[in-house]
Design goal:
The strands form three sheets. Strands 4-5-3-6 form a four-stranded antiparallel β-sheet. A three-stranded antiparallel β-sheet has the order 7-8-9. It has a two-stranded antiparallel ribbon with strand order 1-2. Helix 2 packs across helix 6 and helix 9 runs antiparallel to helix 11. The protein is built from 14 helices and nine strands. The longest helix has 17 residues.
Amino acid sequence: MLPVSAATGWAIPSIESLTSLASWLGILPEELMWFADLKGLERRRKDLPQLRHYHYRVFAKKSGSVRLIESPKPRLKELQRRILTLLLDEIPLHPAAHGFRKGHSVMTFTTPHVGQRVVLRMDLKNFFPSISRARVQALFRTAGYPEPVGDLLGGVCTNTTPRDVWNNLAFDIDPVQLRETRSFYAEPHLPQGAPTSPALANLCSYRMDCRLTGLANAAGAVYTRYADDLAFSGNEEFEHCIDRFSTHVAAILHEEGFAANHRKTRVMRQSVRQQLVGLVVNQRMNVRRDDFDHLKAILTNCVRLGPESQNREAHPNFGAHLDGRIGFVESVNPDKGRQLRTLWEKIVWQ
């Protein structure tokens, strides 16, 4: 299969067969078939969890739904990291994508929306697991890999969740929702926790980003995306069509295989706090006041009572945790960052 015209200039490795793929990954062909698991044996290994490729952790969300973290075991993670660094990182992303991308951050994501008259924030539901194995395999075939190679690469980067993962949860969940969630994750999908998943999610969202950018341009708006967070902003022209615009966005998401989480959709005009990924963008980019006050209170108590009294979440390296939070504030608002750094320097560490 020939690559699409745009892919002819990508500096990705040439892999023409199952044998050459196994050699490139540094494993035997038999091991490659086992790791790719195209027959979905992962979800059938009920009594032999040691043969599974992933560790599973289920968390409850505030909304009442659940989040599943699927962490690959060391050997599979090593293969995925090789695919990420030598293959996926060589494929260009859409300019609107800012999450999980070198040289980009929440600041580059929010900067285009600072000082705008109206900001529309939308959220994608189940971003990673909604991307199917077939979609990932199609991406590799688009890059020019033969169908067997693309299928195996897609298999290595996706997973089917065993049904018993949902047994004996440490929290209550509605039985109907549990049944739907179990069926949803039983289909081959991008696992949240694999090193390749963020890059593949961005790449599989390329056409969606193209369509949403075109829609925003037509409405006199600007569009950026940070993982599953979508942001649109503009002035009077965009404000006049904001209600119909969000409906068009939801329709495009549906056509592209995604779904909008309508409970998180927000239309924010200048009269209210315009907030994206924890940053305020009304007049200039800034941290939220309550977040700053909370961190300042923690640092003050660390000075007065000692840092051990404030490590309520039992961070293994509480000092590094606080230093990172202060560093983020410094990058957004240097003046507020200096206030926090002054308190940090007064803490006596044991």
